Amino acid sequence: MSTTTPAVRVRLARPSGSLTGGRFPAVPRRPREHARPASRVDESFAALGTRCRVVIESPVGAPESALQALARIRRLIDEVDQRLSRFRPESDLSQLNRDPRETVPARPLVLDALATALTAADRSDGLLDPTILPALIEHGYARTRRDATPVGLLAALRDAPPRRPARPHPGGAWRQVRISRVNGTITRPPGLRLDVGATAKGWLADRCGALLHAHARWAVDLGGDLRVGGPQARSRPFVVEATAPLRATPAARLVLSSGAVATSGIDRRLWRRPDGAPAHHLIDPATGAPAWTGLLTVTAVAASGEEAELIAGATLLRGPGAIGRLSLSGGLAIDDHGHVHRRPNVRPGAWRWSA
Fold first, then answer.
1. Lowest CB count within 10 Å: 101, 228, 277, 280, which one?
2. First CA to last CA across the chain, in angstroms?
3. Are 287 and 278 spatial neighbours (Cβ–Cβ below 8 Å)?
4. How far, in Å, CA of 16 to CA of 217, rounded?
């Protein structure tokens, strides 16, 4: 699984030492009867090549404590990291990509992650293509670049090629991948290598959220892809900050009581190829080269992490002409000049911009 910390750093804010209240008058005060949950955890940790944070509040009589729920979430995240990281030679994904057989048995978790990636490819008309791994490797992303010397964003933008929207590959090799949940197999042309980095964190955030339905208030932040929920979040919503790459102050603050936020961006993992050209991890499937579309980041709000990640990734690859697609559920895009384009929700929803 290839994951990165997004260019817009979406995070749960900690105003006045808490997740809500204080600076944001739009956030209701905590009801007195909910002042002390039976158990609460708030833990940050490294995983998936990024920083994660989990907040869980459990009511009296919950079938498991917040600490027990956290342990289950950590086990799930660790399993996904072990099974789906393309940077681990022993991972299920790496073994699948080395397997010379056309049809390969796979665990249910791997089948589910790949099914999500294929759905995103179909719904984005091939822009979110899980078969672009060879292009990533060709352009310098053969191994994690977490500790690599970064390239400055302004220098990269100056040296980047002319901006244009990404396009799907006319061959669409992802259409040749077949998943059988009945047989527990993946069928694809031998030698076709797959990567789920474009969709894995949103999918995983949803799986984490499904484990927390019995808890009063919770949030899962996987390096900027967030899923929040719980009945008490309606009266004590989370404040989510999005910090833009070309400015020090937050580009937006969202007040979120349910649903998901995901960001796709190009500035957190920039490097130079041997020829000196700047490169990043978002590939134009039609050219096999990094996509320079005129957008630095896109943050989308949706009912699920899977949906938010699809909207954010596809909008960034389509470029400025697609910003209007954010209007349905809400979000923001930041262009190469640092201009912030906000698109508020056009329907009543479970979130709003903070004052």
1. 101
2. 37
3. no
4. 19
Q: Is residue 106 situated within a structural domain?
A: no
Q: Please enumerate in sequence order all residues whose Cβ is within 8 A of that of 23, keeping only pairs 6 or more positions apart, or say none.
A: 15, 16
Asked if residue 81 is part of any domain, the answer here is: yes
Q: For residue 81, give the CATH number of its domain.
A: 3.10.520.10
The tally of domains found in the chain comes to 1
Crossing angle (nearest 10°) for helices 66-84 and 200-210: 150
Q: Note the pTM of the prediction, 2 decimals.
A: 0.87
Q: Could you tell me if 341 and 332 are in contact, meaning their C-beta atoms sit under 8 angstroms apart?
A: yes
Q: What are the helix (H) ranges across the chain?
A: 66-84, 92-98, 108-123, 133-138, 153-159, 200-210, 305-318
Question: Hey, what are 179's tokens?
Answer: 């998943």
Specify the pLDDT at position 251: 80
pLDDT for res 142: 85
- Asked if residue 247 belongs to a domain, the reply is yes
Confirm whether 97 is domain-assigned: no
Domain that holds residue 243: 9-87+114-172+190-353
**pLDDT less than 70: residues of the chain:** 1-38, 145-149, 248, 345-355
Which of 101, 97, 127 has its CA nearest to residue 114? 97
Cβ neighbours of residue 181 closer than 8 Å, sequence gap 6 or more? 108, 111, 115
Tell me what pLDDT residue 17 has: 28
Q: Which residues of 38-72 are buried (b: 16+ CB within 10 A; e: fewer)?
A: ebbbbeeeebbbbbbbbbbbbbeebebbbeebbee
The pLDDT assigned to 11 comes to 53
